[in-house]
Design brief:
There is one protein chain. With about 375 residues, the protein is an alpha/beta fold. The protein is about 45% helix and about 15% strand. Helix 2 runs antiparallel to helix 3, helix 3 crosses helix 4 and helix 3 crosses helix 7. About 45% of the residues are buried. The structure holds pyridoxal-5'-phosphate. The site of pyridoxal-5'-phosphate has 19 residues, from helix 9.
Length: about 375
């Protein structure tokens, strides 16, 4: 034995068993193949008064196989879990959700043959619960919307599963530079429009993931487009963003947007402006959209459309022209028993008809 051999330490060497890599490889391929079978979603242009210098577009995310913008998020969350070595062939997937994310995740869990458990507020619409169950998922209920996080985390531990945790990971799992994310897709589809670079992108925040992707992408692309977030009554986002304090609140009545706490995935630094839209105004805009276009969308789309009309009227009054893009987040058929049901709306104390005049005023400001 030489002097040198005695001087060097042994190499420490530890192997860690990984979840079945062949299965993970096949799972990633299955998800990629599923995506390849789908086309991109439509970008509708609203038929606004002739001669109006402002164009409003809706990126129709209801066209995904699971009917909402959460299809993109669910795919990204599951891929993130697979590629981080967190999800294997026997992992139960668990999520805290107000409904739509769970619907989309149940679809991907079934695609991979994995069990799925959604922890949802008891107030979640029957239509969404039926969809989660139709994709083979099961539901656990909590009374307070704010209780979903701890219960989902506990359920995952109890079942030895993986908590997908959309509210933490939504802003990380999307490739914000491109890879056909929603922002890149919007800019590609706007290419031949008269105002290809939108003045505004308008979106609600649930996880905050979509607004984070949009805000990062416009900077990366070198666009001067601004991002406006519309927030419903009862949400913590608006107060938190405005005051810089992390406040909590009762939570929102507009499913999919507005949260009882400032979610970790909400990236406030890329947001130029926030508008707090009254719930009745959201419903009025949701109904107006259907009358104008035949598109029956969910209430969060109403919130966004109302925000677009406010910004469009402001631009028109300032003599500006340009384009505004928002999302059609999900379809109205998920809300037949709630937001599209007059008796239900009344029972909530909401009077959308009182906002119809305001919408007409905003449209009037757009007429040349
Ligand atoms: C989740 C959701 C949103 C908001 O999207 P985030 O990226 O989570 O902020 C808007 N509308 C509906 C219907 C949603 O489900």
């Amino acid at each position: 034995m030489s002097v040198l051999d005695e001087a060097v330490q042994p190499v420490r060497d530890v192997a860690r068993p990984q979840l079945d890599r062949n299965w993970v490889r096949a799972a990633v391929r299955t998800i990629e193949a599923d995506a390849a079978r789908s086309a991109d979603t439509h970008l509708h242009r609203l038929p606004l008064p002739a001669g109006c210098g402002i164009d409003i577009y809706l990126k129709d995310e209801s066209g995904h196989p699971t009917g909402s913008l959460k299809h993109r998020l669910a795919r990204s969350l599951v891929l993130y879990g697979l590629c981080n070595g967190w999800i294997g062939p026997t992992t139960t997937l668990v999520e805290a959700s107000s409904g739509s994310t769970a619907v989309s995740e149940a679809y991907f869990a079934r695609l991979l043959g994995l069990p799925f458990v959604a922890v949802i507020p008891r107030s979640t619409s029957q239509e969404k619960i039926a969809l989660i169950e139709a994709y083979g998922g099961s539901c656990r209920y909590v009374d307070e919307p704010g209780a979903v996080y701890a219960e989902a985390s506990r359920t995952a531990r109890e079942l030895g599963g993986h908590y997908l945790d959309q509210f933490t990971y939504a802003e990380q799992v999307t490739d914000w530079r491109g890879n056909n994310n929603i922002a890149q897709s919007i800019f590609e589809q706007m290419r031949h429009e008269r105002h290809p670079e939108p003045a505004w992108l308008v979106v609600g925040a649930g996880t905050g993931g979509t607004s984070a992707t949009l805000g990062r992408y416009v900077r990366y692309r070198g666009a001067l487009t601004q991002v406006a977030v519309v927030d419903p009554e009862g949400s913590a986002f608006f107060e938190s963003w405005t005051t810089g304090e992390s406040v909590t609140s009762v939570g929102s009545r507009i499913e999919g947007i507005g949260r009882p706490r400032l979610e970790p995935s909400f990236v406030g630094s890329v947001i130029d402006r926030m508008l707090q839209v009254p719930d009745a105004a959201s419903l009025a805009a949701m109904h107006w959209l259907r009358e104008l276009t035949g598109l029956a969308a969910g209430p969060s789309t109403g919130t966004s459309v109302f925000g677009c009309l406010l910004l469009a009227a402001e631009m028109a009054r300032a003599g500006e022209t340009g384009s505004i893009v928002t999302l059609l987040c999900d379809r109205g058929d998920r809300y037949e028993g709630t937001y599209y049901d007059e008796a239900w709306v009344r029972a909530q104390g909401l009077r959308p008809e009182l906002w119809r005049g305001r919408i007409d005023e905003l449209l009037h400001a757009l007429s040349p």
